[in-house]
Structure formats: C-alpha cells, structure tokens
Design goal:
The chain is an alpha+beta fold. The protein folds into three domains: 10-89, no CATH class; 93-217, no CATH class; 295-336 and 343-408, no CATH class. It has helices at residues 2-32, 38-43, 49-58, 65-77, 91-126, 131-145, 148-162, 178-212, 215-222, 227-233, 236-241, 259-276, 287-293, 311-316, 322-329, and strands at residues 247-251, 279-283, 296-301, 304-310, 319-320, 378-381, 384-386, 391-394, 400-403. Strands 3-4-7-6 form a four-stranded antiparallel beta sheet. A three-stranded antiparallel beta sheet has the order 5-8-9. Helix 6 crosses helix 8 (178-212). The chain is flat and about 100 Å long.
Length: 409
C-alpha cells in the first residue's frame, strides 16, 4: 500500500511538472506574438539604434525564443524571475513588494463576498417572487457576466472623478490613518469581490429555496415558530450553506435505531449520494450496514488502520487480520446450529500510552516475538492490505490456517 501511494504521488508530481512546462511554454510563446518591442517602448521614440541594440542585448532579447525560454526556466530554479524593463528591478522583488497589499485586498474581498453573498441570498429566497428577489437576482446575473475591468472603470468614473468621494488609485498603509486606508481599499475590494459575491448569492438563494421545502421547516412553522428563529436556530441557514458537499461523513448513523429507521436512514444517505454525486465515509461497528453500503472497507483498532480492502476482500477474502477474524467469529450464522459465540479476550490499550509493535498483540491468540516490532501494511492479495506479520488464510472446512511468506522469518 505504501509503495502504491509513493508511486501515485510521484506520478502526480511528474504530471504536474509536465503540465507546468506546457503552460509556461505556451504563455511564453504567446507573449512573443504580442506586437511591439518592449525596449522601444521603454526608451521612447527618441532612442537611437545603438541604445536599442545595447538594451536588447542586455536583456537577452537578441537570442532565439527557445533560448530565452530555457534561460528563464533556469532562472526560476535559482529563484530569479527575470528583470522588469520598465521598472528596472528584479521581478521577484516587485512581486514581494506588492504581495502584502494584494493579500489584504483579496482577503477583504473574500470576507465581503461571503458575508453579503449569504445575506443577499437568504433575503432573496425569503422574498421569492417579489421585487426584492427580482432585483437581487438581476444584479447577481449582471455581476456574473460583467467584465471586472469595465466595472472598475465605471466605479472610478462615478465615485472618484464625478463625485470625488474616493481616490482613483494608490494605497495608504493602515498606520497612516484608518479612514484613508479604508477609502483607498473600497473600490478594489468591491471590484475583486463582484464575481464571488454574485456566485455566493445565487448559490445561497438556490440552497435556501430547497431547504425551505423540507418537512422539518413545515413542522417548525406549524408549531408557531417565527421566521427568524426557523432560519437561525432550526438549522435552516446552516443546512443551506452546505450547498453541494463533495464528501458526506456519517458517524454511526444507525446506532441505537430499529431496523425500520436504519433502512430509512441508509436510504436517505444513498439518495443524497446519487443526487449530489458525492463520496461518503461511513464510521460504524455494524458489519451488516458495512456489507450493504460500502465499496471499500478500512478496519481500525486502537486508532489505526489494521486492514484495508474492498468489501469483497473483507467479507469473502482468503486472508484476515486476527482482529477482523475475531469480529466475524462473534457473528452468529443462520446455517449453523446454536453455538457459543467467540469473544476477543482482554482490553484495548490505553490511548495515552505509546505501544511498541502491534497494538492488538496483548489480545491476539497468534501473538509472538515478531509482534513486538513495528508492523507495516502487507499486500495479502491485489488491493487487500493487512497490518500483521502473519496473514490468516481461510482453509478448507472453515478452519483457519497460516500463510507464511519469506518475509516472516
């Protein structure tokens, strides 16, 4: 399992490097097709041929394009991004000088978009079909489609040049005054947050409309609860903000429930999976539920995974971890006469104490000297991994036998 994980990581790294190479090469070649000469633009129309030739050679623009690209890539590995012709500074120096300001604007825009996106989305859903809903939906659609550079110019023209309320450009540090800092921050934050704000508004409205139709909301209204209490205290807003999760974590969803409610709960989870096309992690001690719903199974003991494989491997496989074997032997079988179910003797180790070797060794009937050493996942069969120095094989007649490999010596 560890070897496969390392191979997967290395493969992803190689794929990422190839992708970065292709993208950077494409962008570099695309920039070369842009009309105009950066040296001429920098020196101005009064520059002589000797000055143009000198600076062209100084910045390496006289070399072939591929040679320039290779030189630029080599500089990246040394932390050099090149030199700005216009500013006469290293590009890395220019980026780091402006990185702090950029982070302030982006973070402020994110907070602004999230807060007002939720507020507008909830308000639009609550006022569905009204003029408020139509106005918010119209503005959200405009925000999704409007180019940011055009929107920024409109704001500058209106609030900076016409009304003279805000500055056209520049940045003032917070230590130079909160009001001036805020005035210089308003326009760039609004422009940056425009797209995410419109997106969050539409998503929140759609989710709220879906949650409003849920049975528990109808029940809360029937009990006489107010709209504000339903929204804020009855998980209506919280459920709406979940939107479309990529992962559902179900921790003991069927514990202490009768079989009818268990079936309804599992059906609800399965319906959510299909409708949202999401993955699910099910945490349970009910092997019947695992057999019915899970594709892959990880058996855990004392906080660590001791066996992993498909449900077919775990329930019908030829190998088991001793703890997994104990779990299955504690389950009664319908095709057998009544018998005393087996138990796993002993207690789990103290989670606050460090255990050398196998954590199940004190309770394992197969334990030996090898169990005192650190155990690693071993591939018992393709896709089936067991963290044990021995692999149990189900022999003929249901008797357990040992499959001893060369690495057991």
């Amino acid at each position: 399992m560890q070897n496969k994980l390392v191979k997967m990581i290395l493969r992803r790294i190689v794929q990422s490097l190839i992708g970065i190479f292709i993208v950077t090469l494409f962008v570099f070649l695309l920039i070369q097709l842009v009309p105009g000469d950066p040296i001429v633009n920098f020196l101005g129309p009064s520059a002589t041929e000797e000055q143009i030739a000198y600076y062209t050679e100084l910045f390496g623009y006289d070399k072939p394009v591929l040679v320039q690209y290779v030189k630029w890539i080599q500089g990246l590995f040394r932390g050099e991004m090149g030199r700005s012709v216009a500013l006469q500074k290293e590009i890395s120096e220019v980026i780091f000088q402006r990185l702090g300001i950029t982070c302030v604007i982006v973070f402020s825009a994110f907070v602004f978009a999230v807060i007002f996106g939720i507020v507008f989305g909830v308000l639009s859903a609550k006022k569905r079909g009204s003029a408020v809903d139509s106005s918010i939906s119209f503005l959200a659609n405009i925000g999704m489609s409007m180019p940011k550079f055009w929107f920024g110019m409109i704001l500058i023209l209106l609030f900076a040049l016409r009304l003279k309320l805000l500055p056209t450009s520049g940045y003032v540090s917070l230590k130079d005054g909160f009001i001036e800092w805020l005035r210089h921050l308003i326009l760039p934050v609004i422009v940056t947050a425009m797209g995410p704000l419109a997106s969050y508004t539409r998503q929140t409205r759609s989710s709220m409309l879906e949650v409003i139709r849920q049975d528990y909301v109808t029940t809360a209204r029937a009990k006489g609860l107010g709209q504000r209490e339903i929204t804020l205290r009855q998980n209506q807003l919280r459920n709406a903000l979940i939107c479309e999760p990529k992962l559902i974590l179900a921790d003991e969803p069927t514990t202490a429930l009768d079989v009818t409610i268990q079936a309804q709960m599992l059906g609800l989870i399965g319906e959510l999976q299909k409708r949202l096309n999401t993955a699910m992690i099910l945490v349970t001690h009910d092997l019947g539920v695992v057999a019915q719903t899970c594709e892959k199974v990880a058996v855990m003991y004392a906080g660590e995974i001791i066996e992993y494989g498909t449900a077919e491997h775990i329930f019908n496989g030829a190998h088991w971890h001793p703890y997994t074997e104990g779990l299955f032997k504690a389950i009664p079988k319908l095709d057998e006469e009544s018998r005393r179910l087996e138990t796993i003797d002993g207690m789990m180790p103290d989670p606050t104490q460090k255990v050398e070797g196998c954590r199940f060794a004190d309770r394992c009937k197969y334990a030996g000297e090898a169990c005192k050493k650190m155990q690693h996942m071993q591939e018992a069969e393709p896709g089936h991994f067991i963290k044990c120095h021995r692999i149990i094989r189900e022999g003929a007649g249901g008797e357990s036998g040992w499959k001893t490999e060369s690495w057991l010596k």
